[in-house]
Amino acid sequence: MLNSDNSRQKSPQQRFLFILGVAMIILFCTIAVIVVFFGDLIHLDPQKFPQGYRIAFGIVLIIYAIIRFFRILRDNK
User: Fold this and answer.
1) How confident is the model at residue 20 (pLDDT cuts 50, 70, 90)?
2) What CA–CA distances, in Å, run from 44 to 8, 47, 50, 56, 59?
3) What does the angle CA 21 – CA 22 – CA 24 come to, to the nearest 5 degrees?
4) What is the pTM of this model?
5) For residue range 25-48, what is the model confidence (pLDDT) as tens digits?
6) Helix count (H) and strand count (E) of the chain?
7) What is the pLDDT of residue 27?
8) Burial 18-51 (b: 16+ CB within 10 A, else e)
9) Is the distance from CB of 42 to CB of 34 less than 8 angstroms?
10) Which residue, of 15, 32, 42, 64, has the greatest Cβ tally within 10 A?
């Protein structure tokens, strides 16, 4: 998929870790979207977790997912 060198195949362990890494990126982005946009639907207490904190937490999760994405790209080469 992201590997341009098709002459060498990945080991099953490398494939599994790649798929797990992509799944974690998707999970972090999904959690960020749910916390920011659907916090009321999952009954987050506005007194304990105000809107500003929810947005900050979502941004941190998205930044972390981006960092993981670039690490996967770098390690995949």
Assistant:
1) very high
2) 48, 9, 9, 15, 17
3) 65
4) 0.79
5) 999 999 999 999 998 888 888 888
6) 2, 0
7) 97
8) beebeeebeebbeebeebbeebeeeebeeeeeee
9) yes
10) 32
